[in-house]
Specification:
Length: 458
C-alpha cells in the first residue's frame, strides 16, 4: 500500500465519527434520505441467490448511461442479479422511474457506503458481489482496496479522465498506479481518455465507445406533452436545459431581447438542480412566470416557464423548437448534448464543454450543433443564436438531423460491453471460490447471445 493510500485510509477512519453529523445535515437539505442513511455505513445488505454483479454509478449522468447496459446484461444472462449503487438522491429517484417493471425483481438499489474502511468492509461482506463495475471516474481508494482484497474482479466502464484530473493524479504517480491496477478491465469513453489512463499506469485499457451514445431517448408522459403543446400552440418556444447558476440570468436577459422580435415567445428554463426553482423564478423580475413544481401552467401571457421538476427533460426537449444545453456558458464543462439530439431538438452550446469533448467534435464536424461565442455580451450572443434557429426552420431541421445521426451510431454498444463484462463472473468450478460463491453455471449455458459478441473495439 502506498504512503498516500495509507494516509487516506487513516484519515477516513479518523474522520468517521464526524460523518453522521454531515449525513444528517445533508438529509435536512434533501440530499440524503433520512431513513436510508444506514446504507451509507454499509448496512442494508440483502444478497439475492444466484450470480450478483455490482454496478456503481455516482450520479444522474452515470445512472442514465448504464440503463441500456443493465438491459443488455439481463438479456444476455437471464439468471444474473444486479446491485446498483449511487451517491445521490436524484440518481436513485431516476433509476426507480426509468427501470422497466420486468427488471424490478432483479435490480436492487442501495446508496454507496462512504469510503471508510469499516463501512466498506461491512457493505462488501454483506453483499458478496461476484464482480464489480464502476462507471466513469469513481475511484474511491478504500472501496477498491477492500474489493480487491476479497478477490472481487473489478472493471471501470465508460472511463473518463480529463486533462485536469490526469494532471492531479500525475502528482502522485505511485498512488495512481496502485488505484488503477486494481481493475481487471478498463473500457474508456474515447482515445484521449484511454491515453491518459495508460499514462497513469492502467494496465489494460480498451476503447469500445461511449455509453452516452447508446442511451435510449428520454421518456415522456404523452398526455402531458399533448396538453402543453395545446397550451403553447402557435407560440415560438425555446428551452434553456440543465442550467447552472449564472445561466438562468443570461436566458432571462436573452428572452427580453428576443420578445420584441418573436411575439408570444415562451422561454422554458430547466435548472440542473430542481431545488433551485424558487431562486430561478426570483430572477425573472416582472416577467409573467409559471413554475412547474407548483402545478402552474403557462397561460397565453406567460413569458417564462420554470420547469423545476425531476425527470421531465424528455417532455421539454420534445416541446421546444431548440435547446440551449447548460453548464456551457459557465465553466462547468457542459451537460449531455445527446439527450436533445436523440429527440430531434436542435442544440446550442457555449464554449465550456470539456465533459463531452469527443462527442462534440463529432457532432460539430457533422454540422449537428451551434456554438455560442459569448464575447463581452453573452446574453446578446445567446439571443442571436436562438433567434437564428427560430427564424430559419430549414437550418434547424438540418442541424437536428445531423446530430441525430451521431447519436444513433452506437446502438449496439451496450451489448458489446455486456459481453466484455460477463466473463468477469465466475463459471463452473470457479463458483465455490468466488466472492459470492454463486457464479454462472457454465460458459456453454450462460454466455451472451450472438448479438452481444465482443468485436475488435472491446
Amino acid at each position: 500500500m502506498s504512503a498516500l493510500a495509507l494516509a487516506w485510509r487513516l484519515a477516513a477512519t479518523a474522520v468517521s465519527p464526524l460523518l453522521p453529523l454531515h449525513l444528517r445535515s445533508r438529509a435536512a437539505r434533501g440530499k440524503e434520505i433520512a431513513e436510508r442513511i444506514p446504507e451509507r455505513y454499509g448496512h442494508g445488505a440483502a444478497r439475492p441467490d444466484g450470480p450478483l454483479l455490482w454496478l456503481h454509478a455516482a450520479s444522474v449522468g452515470e445512472t442514465v448511461s448504464i440503463l441500456p447496459l443493465i438491459d443488455a446484461l439481463t438479456r444476455a444472462e437471464p439468471r444474473l442479479n444486479l446491485l446498483v449503487t449511487t451517491g445521490t438522491v436524484t440518481s436513485a429517484t431516476l433509476l426507480a422511474r426509468r427501470l422497466p417493471a420486468q427488471l424490478a425483481g432483479r435490480v436492487t438499489h442501495r446508496f454507496v457506503p462512504l469510503d471508510v474502511p469499516a463501512w466498506v468492509a461491512r457493505f462488501l461482506d454483506g453483499w458478496r458481489p461476484d464482480a464489480a463495475v464502476f462507471v466513469e471516474s469513481e475511484l474511491w481508494p478504500n472501496l477498491l482496496t477492500e474489493a480487491a482484497r476479497r478477490g472481487i474482479p473489478l472493471a471501470l466502464v465508460n472511463a473518463r479522465m480529463s486533462a485536469r484530473s490526469a494532471g492531479s493524479w500525475a502528482r502522485a504517480p505511485g498512488f495512481a498506479r496502485a488505484v488503477l491496477s486494481r481493475f481487471t478491465l478498463i473500457l474508456a469513453q474515447g482515445a484521449e481518455d484511454a491515453a491518459r489512463l495508460r499514462a497513469l499506469g492502467a494496465p489494460d485499457v480498451r476503447v469500445p465507445g461511449n455509453l452516452k451514445y447508446a442511451a435510449p431517448p428520454l421518456p415522456v408522459d404523452t398526455a402531458a406533452l399533448e396538453r402543453l403543446r395545446a397550451l403553447a400552440a402557435g407560440r415560438p418556444v425555446w428551452l434553456a436545459a440543465s442550467t447552472h447558476p449564472g445561466e438562468e440570468a443570461l436566458a432571462l436577459a436573452a428572452h427580453r431581447r428576443l420578445a420584441p422580435r418573436h411575439p408570444g415567445l415562451l422561454t422554458i428554463i430547466v435548472p440542473r438542480h430542481p431545488e433551485r426553482g424558487a431562486e430561478v423564478a426570483a430572477l425573472a423580475g416582472d416577467l409573467p412566470l409559471a413554475r412547474r413544481s407548483l402545478g402552474e401552467d403557462p397561460g397565453p401571457d406567460t413569458a417564462v416557464l420554470v420547469a423545476d421538476t425531476l425527470g421531465e427533460l424528455g417532455l421539454f426537449y420534445r416541446l421546444a423548437a431548440l435547446a440551449f444545453v447548460g453548464g456551457s456558458l459557465v465553466p462547468h464543462g457542459g451537460q449531455n448534448p445527446l439527450e436533445p439530439a436523440r429527440l430531434g431538438c436542435p442544440v446550442l452550446l457555449g464554449p465550456h464543454t470539456w465533459n463531452f469533448a469527443e462527442i462534440l467534435r463529432r457532432m460539430e464536424a457533422a454540422g449537428g450543433l451551434t456554438r455560442i461565442d459569448p464575447g463581452t455580451d453573452p446574453a446578446g450572443a445567446l439571443a442571436e443564436a436562438v433567434s437564428a434557429m427560430l427564424t430559419n426552420e430549414a437550418r434547424a431541421r438540418a442541424q437536428a438531423e445531423a446530430a441525430l445521426s451521431i447519436a444513433a451510431e452506437e446502438a449496439g454498444l451496450p451489448g458489446r460491453i455486456a459481453a466484455a463484462l460477463l466473463p468477469l463472473l465466475p463459471t463452473g468450478d470457479d463458483r465455490a471460490a468466488a466472492p459470492g460463491g454463486r457464479g454462472l453455471a457454465t460458459p456453454e449455458t450462460s454466455g451472451p447471445p450472438e448479438t452481444g459478441k465482443v468485436d475488435d473495439r472491446v
